[in-house]
# Entry
Amino acid sequence: MDSDTLVFCPFCGKHMSQLTRFCFSCGRSLEFLNGADQSEGPDVLQQCIPYFNEGHSYAAIVDMMSCLHGVHISLRSLKSKLNDAGLYRRKDFSSTNVIIRAIRLELRGPGQLFGYRMMWQVLKQKYNLRVKRDHVMNLLRELNPRGCERRARRRFIRRTYHSMGPNYIWHADGYDKLKPFGLALSGCIDGFSRKVLWLVCGSTNNDPTVIAHYFLSCVRNLGVIPMRLRTDCGTENGTMAAIQCTLRHHHNDYYSGASSHMYGSSTSNQRIESWWSIFRKGRAQFWMELFADLTDAGYFNGSHEHQCLLRYCFGDVLQKDLDECVRLWNSHRIRPSRTASCPGGLPNELYYLPHRFGSRDCGFQIEQTELDAFPEAHLTRAPCGDPNIQEYLDLAMEHNHLQKPEYWQSSTELYLRLKEIAQL
# Structure
């Protein structure tokens, strides 16, 4: 071979001015290249090495070379080339010290989450090491015992939720599981005490005016503004966020002004999202199945008129059920959680008596005069969502001497009766 010809290492791809016994970059032996044609043999070998390191079988490598590279090579020729290059499956394993250094390097980052199978694959493909899988398993037990213990428990490691006290942060969000039936819910929960601050059913939870009305009503009733307010990035939260920041602009704490409101994804708004899951199991599922039965029976088709009629008949009864749900939740005992720094207890006690739990109220007292700058808009939206349909249904109720329902059974009967009268 001409010594002036530019050659390269088939293992690391490093170009060299002349062929030597060992690669200056990776230190691998290159003696098998003596007398070989660099324009064909080593190039084919260099294409085979990544597949070999990925753990493909010899037959699969032959097939890949044929299908992906158009190179036809026999199984025997492939094994011969790999053996000449010093690549074996079950011998000439890498030294333990080199393996340990590579594992420790991976444990500094996301590799600390790897199991021994993933670590074994990383060592083979990323570091080009030949190592037994059982050897990697034993080394991981020595180098990362806590990680092995966590993976053996097969539990998802959750972040710990931190809250300094009641009114430190409020979590607000909408609930859309009943929206196909025309019923939109909006709720808010205190992060420390898990006290539900409001849970309201209406014709929409996408109107910024409606959400701001819920927020101002809660602030007026409690006489306190939270240190922080967290919502998702929906446009319905814009007015509420502006009110929160405006009421906090004259304070001088770390989260005053614009920092008092925080946008985030719905999945990260864990307090209210977790409560929605509990709410569905204990309350919402019943209503979802009730309305689904009406749909399956052909009494509800999802049209605007049907949604308005369903809201008219079930709205007050559903809101009554929501109020009962909030009352029961705020007076039930919550067990301590390992994934939260908040104590266990009754939400009402945690909220109103934080000193009993080694905490303090983090909210800011608000005078009614401060809230006068934000007069609550009188919601002109009809309870059923359409003023014309509302007027018609009121007249139908009066003309037929029908009574407002108090339970879901009477609501269902009223819905079917008004549907028949309106010929929907």
